[in-house]
Amino acid sequence: MTARPHTGNRDAIRVFVAVGISEAAREQLSGAAERIREKIPHGIQWANPQGMHLTLKFLGNIPAANVAPLLESLTPVAAETRPFALQLAGLGMFPNRRQPRVLWAGIGGDTPALSRLQQAAEKAITALGYPPEPRPFAPHITLGRPRRTLSPAQLSQTGQAVSALTPPQPVTWQVTSIDIMQSDLHPSGARYTILASATLSP
């Protein structure tokens, strides 16, 4: 079955594929976000700690009926992948410190295994008819996004504040599944729901 995204379908849902993080990692990331908030109290849309994740592939709006074939395509990928360890590794910004648009925590640990998993997932998903991701995979966990209303000076100040922070502790966790997640956008921020999971090989 070929899965074609539809943006006008009332049954469409906003979907991405990700791997989860541990509760200890969430606590470290929440602390990092709070330290940024102390220096930059306004102008950042913060990620909900309970929804923090590591995105492998963003699909956008797709028909809800396409979740089942998506899971079917990812199940063999998971079955051929053993669990592996990741850890938090520093803070950063996209695209740069002067004009940050995304504040993030980096990923360390078994990043070669993560890259192999992402490449295999990308191949399986594009085989369903989704467009390939043109940008190189840059694993990260989003902490927040500066609002478009911030001035260049405020953006620069935000970048400086993040650069000056002590990075979170390098908490380690095991990746044990590939998750298909739904994102619902709200004024207070996105809310995430795991729709289905493919468990990695034990």
Mind explaining what this structure looks like?
The chain has a single domain, classed as Cyclic phosphodiesterase (Cyclic Phosphodiesterase, Chain: A, Alpha-Beta Complex). Mean pLDDT is 89; it is low at 1-8. A hairpin with a 6-residue loop joins β8 (177-184) and β9. The chain has helices at 23-39, 67-79, 111-126, 152-164, and strands at residues 12-19, 44-46, 54-63, 84-94, 102-109, 140-146, 172-175, 177-184, 191-199. α2 crosses α3 (111-126). The protein is globular, with a radius of gyration of 17 Å. The protein has four helices and nine strands; from the N terminus they run βαββαββαβαβββ. It has 202 residues and is α+β, with helices and mostly antiparallel strands. Strands 2-6-5-4-7 form a five-stranded antiparallel β-sheet, sandwiched between helices. It has a four-stranded antiparallel β-sheet with strand order 3-1-8-9.
Summarize model confidence as the mean pLDDT: 89
Question: Secondary-structure element sequence?
Answer: EHEEHEEHEHEEE
Distance between the termini: 29 Å
Q: Work out the radius of gyration.
A: 17 Å
Order of strands across the main sheet: 2-6-5-4-7
Compute the number of helices.
4
Strand elements, count: 9
| Bulk shape | globular
The CATH superfamily bears the name Cyclic phosphodiesterase
Structural class: alpha+beta
Tally of structural domains = 1
- Residues in β-strands, percent: 25-35%
* Low-pLDDT stretches: 1-8
CATH topology: Cyclic Phosphodiesterase, Chain: A
**What proportion of the residues is helical, as a percent range?**
25-40%
Largest sheet: 5 strands, antiparallel
CATH class: Alpha Beta
CATH architecture: Alpha-Beta Complex
